[in-house]
Amino acid sequence: MHDDLARDSKTLPADPPDAPALADTARRLLRKPAIRRAVAFIRTDDERTLAEQVRLASTPAPPFAETARAEVMAELLEASGAGPARVDEVGNVRAWIGEPADRPLVISAHLDTVFPPEQEIRIRRDGDRWVGPGISDDARGLAVLLAVIRALPPLPRLPLLAVATVGEEGVGDLRGVRHLFGPEGDLREARGFISLDGAGTARVIAGGVGSRRFRVGIRGPGGHSWVDWGRVNPIHILTEALAEAQHITLPDGATFNVGRIGGGTSVNAIPTAAWCELEFRSENEEELTLLETRLRSLLERVVGLRNTGRLAGPEEKASLAIERIGHRPAGYTDPAELLVRSAVAATRAVVGRATLAASSTDANYPMKVGIPAITLGAGGEAGLAHTPDEWYRNVQGPDGTLRALLTLLMMEPAEAG
Amino acid sequence: MHDDLARDSKTLPADPPDAPALADTARRLLRKPAIRRAVAFIRTDDERTLAEQVRLASTPAPPFAETARAEVMAELLEASGAGPARVDEVGNVRAWIGEPADRPLVISAHLDTVFPPEQEIRIRRDGDRWVGPGISDDARGLAVLLAVIRALPPLPRLPLLAVATVGEEGVGDLRGVRHLFGPEGDLREARGFISLDGAGTARVIAGGVGSRRFRVGIRGPGGHSWVDWGRVNPIHILTEALAEAQHITLPDGATFNVGRIGGGTSVNAIPTAAWCELEFRSENEEELTLLETRLRSLLERVVGLRNTGRLAGPEEKASLAIERIGHRPAGYTDPAELLVRSAVAATRAVVGRATLAASSTDANYPMKVGIPAITLGAGGEAGLAHTPDEWYRNVQGPDGTLRALLTLLMMEPAEAG
Q: ipTM beyond 0.90?
């Protein structure tokens, strides 16, 4: 996730109603000597936070290969005052802040990037920007997770667990949070989940945009472009199907994207195979189910029509394979939940405004299983996420740390209204 | 070329009318003592021909890297009785058979294969088959070119030039024959051109199937699949255009093939680029020009429509690039030409039947510039051309050599009717 990767939700109001009691609590907290010291500390800690952000971003973390970055994160968690860091069965790095306890509030950021192992990972300074793959998404979240731990006043009473997750990005299919909160997860009773993801200070992501992702493959016998003219051509079939799929009526707020396509070996050969990877997104799970059904029937119809009349046997026909390569559940956290109201009040207290928004992040999964979950940008500004030219500018960077800290403190039983 | 890669022509009659005078000539030639000795020699020379075919196929000759095979061919041409072999400016190997003279008949086979340098080149025996990349296309043609030279009776009166050409296959774009017969070529006055290409004995290729090949690229700003939803998606545009291009009405005998497609980096990103490689083929050059025009206007229209209403500036728009990556001229040699009639009569005399056909070979270019040109299979049977499992079976192998020889002899001024 990245601040730019959130949009207004179609389920949640962009401007949540003000909660005077919580606004009071936030203001009162910010006047407390311990919190004023924390605010001052966050400003002096800014340089270290930025240095750790660059170090983390400089450590490659391709999908399914987050180990190197996990080791750095484990070291930094312990150095920041968390308890012993352990890597769990799927690769998440976990560390308690204070004593282990039941029903923790989980504060999190994700280790993985979208970049493949071949991508050169080099972070460079360009004026007031840091530029390079993953510098914001989610090295910023990881660094601010560490900064929050360092800034926490002694002895928070609420059990807090820090987790650096694997598998947040596309192909990772949320496998880190699935492991925490899924059917076999040991954190199914968590009090709440906060993901620090990318840059930004004013949005509170309480809507979870779901997605269904598919790899579509079409195969045929192949042949010579001229002598075998008339044989099924998988590229021809796939392009026809995708041209039609673009005209599937999308419900308001839903999207369709073909992100990758490939096939064929030579301009003068009928290819034996063509494939694509595509996705639908929506905040509504039922809409996604309907879109999947429409896509499948469209593909089967287009392939079937091309096979019509080919009596020469199955080896002359085109075959279709549809593989679901991702399923990110849609959902949202009720804006009336304490976690959302606390985050909104903390955001308003720190930066003067707050909007609710929807995005697709680690929070989707806990939302689905009924755990209050939000995602917060971790301060600063960023752009060009998911490209090698991704950039981060440390404007209002400390505010990202402060509002995360304040959100945590407002969840304390003594503070919560 | 490969015997399997020829088809009936739409321009030429598959069954050319019999020419009694030429049939007489052929039969008379076959009874001559000198020719009977040549026939006997060809049979005894069969093993050497096959061994040279395997040696040539075993010498890699990727597109634009035919030098190694050219050196072997130069050595074998001289060893077979041709004059000094020289490599010309583009890499063709040339050797006179007898004395150099004006207006020669050119007999040829091609050096290059479709296989890239990474392809392992290993020729193996499997029962009665030889198997491996390029074993037939065109190691067979090269070997039979050598066998014909060895079998020629002494002192042919017609000036004969043997040429092993570069660049016959797809990407080579006929650069070997372009150099011989093009605007600056020194063989523009040649009497005729015979290409020995691949296996087969019964077809005389007098039709040249032309092709136009294009690489189509579409670019856009890219972005995030959900947040940037609505931006131009090059894969969406390309697939729509290709779906439509499939419905361009093709004249009888013309073909359209999208052989390769690619684009995008991640399922959850709007790609910045999509591309494909496609071709049209036809025996008619004007048809190809018309098809190219239609394709270009279709692509411009589809891209233009997607850009309509995007006022945000050119960086928000999709751009289109169409690169012509191949242009093989269409043409044919009039069946009334002595060269065609001689080849048909020789084929009938040797194997009892003959059909005219069309294919896409080195002969296309001389056809285009008005030089009588044909392509003949070089005997034997073959299959799976352009694949690593290409095979050759030496059934009626010597007949390929004999009919090429007989065709040459029938062109002798004293014989031609």
A: no
Contact A257 B279 (CB under 8 A): no
List B residues 343-362 in contact with A (Cβ-Cβ < 8 A). 360
Query: Which pLDDT belongs to residue A1?
Result: 47
**What is the SS3 assignment for B244?**
helix
β-sheet bridge partners, residue A165? A110
Asked if the model's pLDDT at residue A417 lies above 50, the reply is no
Tell me which residue in A2, A169, A233 faces B258 most closely, judged by beta carbons: A233
Overall average pLDDT of the B87-107 stretch: 96
Q: Tell which B residues from 266 to 295 touch A, by Cβ distance under 8 Å.
A: 266-271, 274, 276-279, 281
What is the overall mean pLDDT for chain B?
Answer: 92
* Rounded Cα–Cα distance for residues B237 and A396 (Å): 40
Residue B168 to residue B107: CA distance in whole angstroms: 14
Closest approach of A396 to chain B, Cα-based (Å): 23
Chain A closest-CA separation from residue B211 CA (Å): 10
Tell me, yes or no, if B6 comes closer than 8 A to chain A by beta carbon: yes
Give this prediction's pTM: 0.79
Do the strands B210-219 and B273-282 form a parallel or antiparallel pair, or are they unpaired? antiparallel
DSSP-derived secondary structure letter, B397:
H
What percent of chain B lies above the pLDDT cut of 90?
A: 79
Query: Tell me: the pLDDT tens digits for B157-190?
Result: 789 999 999 999 877 889 999 999 999 999 999 9
